[in-house]
Amino acid sequence: MTSGITEGMRDWTGRTVYDTAGDKIGKVGQLWTDDDDGRPSWVTVHTGLFGMNETFVPVQGMHPRGDGDLETPFDKAQVKDAPNVSPESGRIERDDESRLYSHYGLTGGRTREDFDDRRATGREAVGHDTSGPTTDDAMTRSEEHLRVGTEQREAGRARLRKYVVTEQEQVSVPVTREEVRVEREPITEGNRSQAMSGPDISDEEHEVTLHEERPVVDTEAVPVERVRLAKEQVTETETVSGEVRKERIDTEGDVEGRTRDQR
Protein backbone atom coordinates (compact mmCIF):
# COMPACT_ATOMS: atom_id res chain seq x y z
CA MET A 1 0.00 0.00 0.00
CA THR A 2 1.34 3.40 -0.89
CA SER A 3 1.88 5.89 1.89
CA GLY A 4 -0.67 8.58 2.63
CA ILE A 5 -4.45 8.65 2.51
CA THR A 6 -5.95 8.27 -0.93
CA GLU A 7 -9.06 10.14 -2.02
CA GLY A 8 -10.99 6.89 -1.87
CA MET A 9 -10.01 6.36 1.76
CA ARG A 10 -11.31 9.77 2.73
CA ASP A 11 -14.80 8.51 1.83
CA TRP A 12 -14.56 5.35 3.95
CA THR A 13 -16.19 6.99 6.98
CA GLY A 14 -19.75 5.75 7.32
CA ARG A 15 -19.36 2.86 4.87
CA THR A 16 -20.33 -0.65 5.94
CA VAL A 17 -17.57 -3.24 6.37
CA TYR A 18 -18.17 -6.91 5.45
CA ASP A 19 -15.91 -9.93 5.79
CA THR A 20 -15.08 -12.24 2.86
CA ALA A 21 -18.07 -14.48 3.74
CA GLY A 22 -20.43 -11.54 3.26
CA ASP A 23 -21.23 -11.10 6.95
CA LYS A 24 -21.84 -7.50 7.99
CA ILE A 25 -19.41 -6.26 10.66
CA GLY A 26 -20.36 -2.59 11.10
CA LYS A 27 -19.85 0.96 9.85
CA VAL A 28 -16.51 2.79 9.71
CA GLY A 29 -16.12 5.45 12.36
CA GLN A 30 -12.59 6.94 12.07
CA LEU A 31 -9.50 6.44 9.94
CA TRP A 32 -6.26 6.30 11.95
CA THR A 33 -2.93 7.29 10.43
CA ASP A 34 0.70 7.50 11.45
CA ASP A 35 1.82 11.09 12.02
CA ASP A 36 5.34 10.34 10.71
CA ASP A 37 4.45 9.15 7.22
CA GLY A 38 0.70 9.67 7.04
CA ARG A 39 0.11 6.00 6.26
CA PRO A 40 -3.36 4.76 7.27
CA SER A 41 -3.01 1.84 9.66
CA TRP A 42 -6.35 1.28 11.39
CA VAL A 43 -10.02 2.08 11.10
CA THR A 44 -12.56 1.93 13.88
CA VAL A 45 -15.78 0.06 13.11
CA HIS A 46 -19.01 0.43 15.08
CA THR A 47 -19.99 -3.07 16.21
CA GLY A 48 -22.28 -4.68 18.77
CA LEU A 49 -25.94 -3.98 19.52
CA PHE A 50 -26.97 -0.71 17.82
CA GLY A 51 -23.28 -0.12 16.94
CA MET A 52 -22.43 1.04 20.46
CA ASN A 53 -18.88 -0.45 20.42
CA GLU A 54 -15.99 0.92 18.39
CA THR A 55 -13.46 -1.77 17.38
CA PHE A 56 -10.09 -1.37 15.67
CA VAL A 57 -9.67 -3.18 12.35
CA PRO A 58 -6.46 -3.13 10.24
CA VAL A 59 -6.46 -1.14 7.02
CA GLN A 60 -4.22 -3.86 5.55
CA GLY A 61 -6.19 -5.90 3.03
CA MET A 62 -9.32 -3.71 3.25
CA HIS A 63 -10.73 -2.64 -0.11
CA PRO A 64 -13.99 -1.32 -1.61
CA ARG A 65 -16.58 -3.78 -2.90
CA GLY A 66 -18.56 -3.38 -6.08
CA ASP A 67 -21.48 -1.84 -4.20
CA GLY A 68 -19.34 0.87 -2.61
CA ASP A 69 -19.02 -0.77 0.80
CA LEU A 70 -15.77 -2.21 2.17
CA GLU A 71 -14.45 -5.76 2.60
CA THR A 72 -11.80 -6.93 5.07
CA PRO A 73 -9.92 -10.24 4.98
CA PHE A 74 -10.55 -10.67 8.72
CA ASP A 75 -13.78 -12.49 9.58
CA LYS A 76 -16.54 -11.05 11.72
CA ALA A 77 -15.80 -13.24 14.76
CA GLN A 78 -12.13 -12.18 14.81
CA VAL A 79 -13.08 -8.51 14.65
CA LYS A 80 -15.69 -9.00 17.38
CA ASP A 81 -13.07 -10.58 19.69
CA ALA A 82 -10.44 -7.89 19.07
CA PRO A 83 -8.80 -6.34 22.17
CA ASN A 84 -10.87 -3.58 23.72
CA VAL A 85 -8.97 -0.38 22.91
CA SER A 86 -10.72 2.91 23.57
CA PRO A 87 -10.35 5.52 20.80
CA GLU A 88 -11.31 8.39 23.09
CA SER A 89 -7.76 9.38 23.93
CA GLY A 90 -6.95 10.07 20.27
CA ARG A 91 -3.95 7.74 20.23
CA ILE A 92 -3.07 4.07 20.49
CA GLU A 93 -0.70 3.13 23.30
CA ARG A 94 2.27 0.88 22.56
CA ASP A 95 0.94 -2.14 24.45
CA ASP A 96 -2.53 -1.76 22.94
CA GLU A 97 -1.23 -1.65 19.38
CA SER A 98 1.01 -4.65 20.05
CA ARG A 99 -2.04 -6.59 21.28
CA LEU A 100 -3.96 -5.59 18.15
CA TYR A 101 -1.15 -6.71 15.85
CA SER A 102 -0.91 -9.99 17.72
CA HIS A 103 -4.66 -10.58 17.61
CA TYR A 104 -4.86 -10.09 13.84
CA GLY A 105 -1.65 -12.08 13.24
CA LEU A 106 0.14 -9.12 11.65
CA THR A 107 3.75 -8.02 11.79
CA GLY A 108 4.98 -4.49 11.78
CA GLY A 109 4.13 -3.43 15.30
CA ARG A 110 6.36 -0.71 16.72
CA THR A 111 9.21 -1.61 19.05
CA ARG A 112 9.77 -0.06 22.45
CA GLU A 113 12.50 2.12 20.91
CA ASP A 114 10.05 3.41 18.31
CA PHE A 115 7.64 4.51 21.02
CA ASP A 116 10.38 6.00 23.19
CA ASP A 117 11.61 8.03 20.20
CA ARG A 118 8.08 9.21 19.45
CA ARG A 119 7.49 10.28 23.04
CA ALA A 120 10.82 12.11 23.07
CA THR A 121 9.95 14.07 19.94
CA GLY A 122 6.30 14.54 20.91
CA ARG A 123 4.98 12.64 17.86
CA GLU A 124 2.45 9.85 18.28
CA ALA A 125 -0.12 8.10 16.14
CA VAL A 126 -3.44 9.85 16.55
CA GLY A 127 -6.86 9.38 15.04
CA HIS A 128 -7.73 11.90 12.33
CA ASP A 129 -11.24 13.09 11.68
CA THR A 130 -12.59 13.42 8.15
CA SER A 131 -11.64 17.09 8.23
CA GLY A 132 -8.39 16.74 10.15
CA PRO A 133 -5.06 18.46 9.55
CA THR A 134 -4.49 16.47 6.36
CA THR A 135 -7.45 18.15 4.68
CA ASP A 136 -8.08 21.70 5.88
CA ASP A 137 -7.91 23.93 8.94
CA ALA A 138 -11.36 23.01 10.28
CA MET A 139 -12.16 20.52 12.99
CA THR A 140 -15.28 18.38 13.00
CA ARG A 141 -17.08 17.92 16.29
CA SER A 142 -18.97 14.63 16.53
CA GLU A 143 -21.26 13.10 19.08
CA GLU A 144 -23.00 9.80 19.60
CA HIS A 145 -26.75 9.45 19.36
CA LEU A 146 -28.77 6.61 20.80
CA ARG A 147 -30.05 4.12 18.26
CA VAL A 148 -33.16 2.54 19.70
CA GLY A 149 -34.83 -0.53 18.27
CA THR A 150 -36.93 -3.41 19.49
CA GLU A 151 -36.43 -7.14 19.78
CA GLN A 152 -39.07 -9.79 20.22
CA ARG A 153 -38.90 -12.19 23.15
CA GLU A 154 -41.27 -14.63 24.79
CA ALA A 155 -43.21 -12.94 27.59
CA GLY A 156 -45.50 -15.76 28.69
CA ARG A 157 -47.88 -18.48 27.59
CA ALA A 158 -51.64 -19.02 27.84
CA ARG A 159 -53.63 -22.22 27.34
CA LEU A 160 -57.22 -23.42 27.41
CA ARG A 161 -58.07 -26.29 29.77
CA LYS A 162 -61.50 -27.95 29.93
CA TYR A 163 -62.64 -29.76 33.07
CA VAL A 164 -65.92 -31.13 34.47
CA VAL A 165 -67.83 -29.81 37.49
CA THR A 166 -71.06 -31.20 38.99
CA GLU A 167 -73.88 -28.85 39.95
CA GLN A 168 -77.41 -29.34 41.31
CA GLU A 169 -80.30 -28.08 39.20
CA GLN A 170 -83.98 -27.93 40.18
CA VAL A 171 -86.68 -28.12 37.53
CA SER A 172 -90.45 -28.06 38.12
CA VAL A 173 -92.24 -30.84 36.17
CA PRO A 174 -96.10 -31.12 36.01
CA VAL A 175 -97.30 -34.71 36.75
CA THR A 176 -100.79 -36.20 36.50
CA ARG A 177 -102.40 -38.93 38.69
CA GLU A 178 -105.79 -40.58 38.83
CA GLU A 179 -107.98 -40.44 41.97
CA VAL A 180 -111.20 -42.29 42.83
CA ARG A 181 -114.43 -40.35 43.12
CA VAL A 182 -117.74 -41.97 44.11
CA GLU A 183 -120.64 -40.99 41.88
CA ARG A 184 -124.26 -41.74 42.85
CA GLU A 185 -127.29 -41.58 40.56
CA PRO A 186 -130.94 -42.25 41.39
CA ILE A 187 -132.92 -45.08 39.78
CA THR A 188 -134.88 -43.77 36.86
CA GLU A 189 -136.82 -45.23 33.99
CA GLY A 190 -133.68 -44.83 31.92
CA ASN A 191 -131.39 -46.98 34.12
CA ARG A 192 -133.94 -49.24 35.81
CA SER A 193 -133.33 -52.19 33.50
CA GLN A 194 -129.58 -52.06 34.23
CA ALA A 195 -130.21 -51.77 37.96
CA MET A 196 -132.56 -54.77 38.01
CA SER A 197 -130.37 -57.01 35.79
CA GLY A 198 -128.65 -58.76 38.70
CA PRO A 199 -129.85 -60.71 41.66
CA ASP A 200 -132.01 -58.96 44.15
CA ILE A 201 -129.60 -59.40 47.07
CA SER A 202 -125.93 -60.43 46.59
CA ASP A 203 -122.26 -59.71 47.42
CA GLU A 204 -120.32 -57.87 44.71
CA GLU A 205 -116.99 -56.09 44.22
CA HIS A 206 -115.82 -53.62 41.53
CA GLU A 207 -112.17 -52.72 41.05
CA VAL A 208 -110.71 -49.67 39.28
CA THR A 209 -107.03 -49.34 38.31
CA LEU A 210 -105.48 -45.93 39.10
CA HIS A 211 -102.59 -44.39 37.09
CA GLU A 212 -100.15 -41.63 37.86
CA GLU A 213 -97.14 -39.92 36.24
CA ARG A 214 -93.76 -39.65 37.95
CA PRO A 215 -90.75 -37.50 37.02
CA VAL A 216 -87.97 -39.20 35.10
CA VAL A 217 -84.49 -37.54 35.21
CA ASP A 218 -81.90 -38.06 32.48
CA THR A 219 -79.07 -35.95 30.98
CA GLU A 220 -77.89 -35.17 27.50
CA ALA A 221 -74.76 -33.32 26.31
CA VAL A 222 -75.64 -30.18 24.38
CA PRO A 223 -72.96 -27.89 22.83
CA VAL A 224 -73.46 -24.34 24.11
CA GLU A 225 -70.47 -22.29 22.88
CA ARG A 226 -67.05 -22.32 21.22
CA VAL A 227 -64.01 -20.92 23.07
CA ARG A 228 -60.61 -20.15 21.58
CA LEU A 229 -57.46 -18.14 22.39
CA ALA A 230 -56.76 -15.07 20.27
CA LYS A 231 -53.72 -12.77 20.33
CA GLU A 232 -53.85 -9.02 19.91
CA GLN A 233 -51.05 -6.47 19.80
CA VAL A 234 -51.02 -3.67 22.35
CA THR A 235 -48.60 -0.80 21.76
CA GLU A 236 -47.12 0.93 24.77
CA THR A 237 -44.39 3.52 25.14
CA GLU A 238 -41.35 2.74 27.27
CA THR A 239 -38.50 5.10 28.08
CA VAL A 240 -34.94 3.78 27.66
CA SER A 241 -31.66 5.47 28.48
CA GLY A 242 -28.03 4.95 27.59
CA GLU A 243 -24.69 6.67 27.76
CA VAL A 244 -23.48 8.61 24.72
CA ARG A 245 -20.18 10.32 24.12
CA LYS A 246 -19.92 13.86 22.78
CA GLU A 247 -16.88 15.74 21.61
CA ARG A 248 -16.23 19.20 23.00
CA ILE A 249 -14.02 21.83 21.40
CA ASP A 250 -12.15 24.32 23.58
CA THR A 251 -9.86 27.15 22.57
CA GLU A 252 -6.43 27.83 24.01
CA GLY A 253 -4.19 30.83 23.82
CA ASP A 254 -5.16 34.37 22.79
CA VAL A 255 -8.54 34.17 21.12
CA GLU A 256 -10.30 37.46 20.38
CA GLY A 257 -14.02 37.78 20.80
CA ARG A 258 -16.37 34.99 21.71
CA THR A 259 -17.01 31.85 19.74
CA ARG A 260 -20.51 31.23 18.50
CA ASP A 261 -20.59 27.60 19.60
CA GLN A 262 -18.88 26.50 22.83
CA ARG A 263 -20.83 23.25 23.23
Automatic annotation (TrEMBL):
PRC-barrel domain sequence ranges: 10-60
Residue ranges constituting the DUF2382 domain according to the UniProt record: 139-250
Short name of one Pfam family: DUF2382
Residues covered by region (Disordered): 122-154, 169-219, 233-263
Transmembrane segments: none
Biased composition (Basic and acidic residues): 138-154, 176-187, 207-219, 243-263
Protein name: DUF2382 domain-containing protein
